[in-house]
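**User:** My hope is that you can spare some time for a protein that puzzles me. I have put the entry right below:
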Amino acid sequence: MTTDRPLRALSTPVLFSLGLRPFFLFGALWGAMAAPLWVYVLAHGDGRIAGRAGMDWHIHEMLFGYVGAVIGGFLLTAVPNWTGRAPLAGTPLAVLFGLWAVGRLALSTPGADAFTLLILDGLYLTGLSLVVWRDVLAARNWRNLGVALAVTGLAAANLAFHLRSGEAGGLDAVVRAGLGLIVMLLVLIGGRVTPNFTRNWLARQGRGRLPAPASRFDLGVMAFTLTALVAWVWRADHPAVGVVLALAGLLNGVRLARWCGWRTAGEPLVWILHLGYAWLAVGLVLLGLAAMGASFAPSAGVHALTTGAMGVMILAVMTRATRGHTGRPLEADRATVVLYGLANLAAVVRVAGGLWPEVYGAALIVAGGLWAASLLGYALVYGPMLLGPRLR
């Protein structure tokens, strides 16, 4: 993704001229606020946010609020490029963004009942999935059926979250399903853009070996990872499931090694994608080891996938796509490299808190601060690009 499409009309506000503009900016701001709020409530409050169990609020707003926004921004920009159709812009985009904002407001308002939340919060991801399906089907773009199915599954998981009985469900099957679907999106899309961008950069540099082309091996790894995640949703604590998860992590590590990431040290916009995918492999292995009876909690693997794989990969995609679609050079400046460092350090600290219970409290606070700093930094550095006109 390196070019922006023309505005549909001269009167279209810049913010709503392309999907990544509102969703990347406000998604980052929401993510920067929501995580530290949970940490503060856990440390100083009664453990509740807007009258609801704080753990449930935190899980929901990270997976379906923050990540849901960034997925929307990416797909509303990428799917038109994949299908050759006009992107959602102007009033339709503003309406979809408004549905996302209404969901965040509803989840932050005390007293809202489950049915109200189901309706108000469910509209955004449902609408996003319909837009993706419309473009994929209209263009007969069968290659991206998996992406459309994953977004639909994420919308269904969000609805199921509000239909759960009781509170503080934690990492139950519904949450694991939502998390697993996002992981599969990373496997699908990350496994596409990472080797492609790496190949393009290495070819321009004239540097010998290029990433291995997509093959049956990649299809096998994706199928095996999907199987492992489905099994995890079904029986997260079964030792046999743990073996499958660990093997999926190792296979994804082998897949990553085939993309020659070590040759991209000269361009942070490229190597950060490899680092994000590496977190995915580590997270699956840690989840598997926990299920097999390792002495650490499953939260280590969960946060390697969330704070690590999702956090780092999302920041990588947001920075690259923002630069490309606003007419900036595809080169990371010092501020961007600092943001990458903050995001990865947040993941290291948060995973450490799961591996060693004695540092859990301190790790939670430090990781929350680093996470917020990386996303707030993105909003400060890249916000003017998202709010301003395209340079060229």
Notes: Residues 1-170 form one domain. The chain has two domains: 1-170, 185-392. The beta strands are 48-49, 52-53.
